[in-house]
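USER:
Make up one protein:

ASSISTANT:
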Amino acid sequence: MRLILTLLCIAWASAATADVITLDNGDRISGQIKGLEDNHLLITSPYSDQLRVRVEHVTAVESGDVAIQALLDGKVSVQAPTADAAAATAASAPVIAPAEIAAATEASEPRAWKGKIDLNSSVSRGNTESHLVNLQGNLQLTRGDHRYLSDITTIREEVDGVTQKEQDRLKLGYNYLFKDGVLDHWFFAMNATLERDPVALLDRRFSLNPSLGYDFWDEPNRQLSVQLGAGYADEEINNQDESSSLIDWRLDFSYDLMAGDIELFHNHHIYRNLNGRENTVFNSKTGVRYDITDGIYLNVQVNYDYDTEPAAGTDSKDVTFLVGAGVDL
């Protein structure tokens, strides 16, 4: 914090008309505001390249530029800097090493993380006794040009004491976000998936897929991204090992309604094995979340899985309806 304020003093010493933004963690960044793009405030400073700061992390802006004040009107509180404050900070600005400036610039990169955990269950007693439990969770961390994602799903279902469903799926992803001009919205992705479904005779499956992706929306109230890539998969089906190259397609979508009280979501993953079984697999989650209280929501969801070449004696389609509750992390 002290180092960030020192950088601010240096910036004001060299240019009394510099713009200053204040973040929700208390950090202050000085420079020249260049515009507003995709809910990101663009600012250049004497000690770094252009920074992209999400508007929801900005609590205040100091700028004497009338155009900047009009641009941010209604989004961020804008105040005109006073000459006395600029002169006072300029007079007290110490000299610091370039290495310290670089470290402070890296530390000031905006980071954001969000996640959800859902627990869904159903119980039936009578002529037929059944019990289904589903636990799923996801976490996303974004820092600067890097985005890290994880998603885990586990389902257990019994009918009259007989296991009908036993699925486990873990997805891990890394995205490098291109944020320079023509490639803005594009990203490079590396995805790893580990899954098992003994009822469908899938003892294990591991895949690793580099991809190229595009963010149509990446905002707090809406997200839409797609990925297309290729990779490698190794699986054991009914005690037989197979490996294959594959092509891979992914889509992630969420959209908030009623000021965020309702969230619609859908994500799917399609891959095609190019040798071995040469099958096409489709996995999806579609549903709606409704906020009960701040941070706690009702979840209604349907999972649909389809395999064009299922193991002998198993179905190609699997549909699961889920109702439960979740919490925002």
Residues 177 and 187 are 4 Å apart (CA to CA). Residues 112-328 form a domain with the Porin fold (CATH 2.40.160.40). The two ends are 26 Å apart (CA to CA). Residues 1-16, 88-98, 104-108 have pLDDT under 50 and may be disordered.
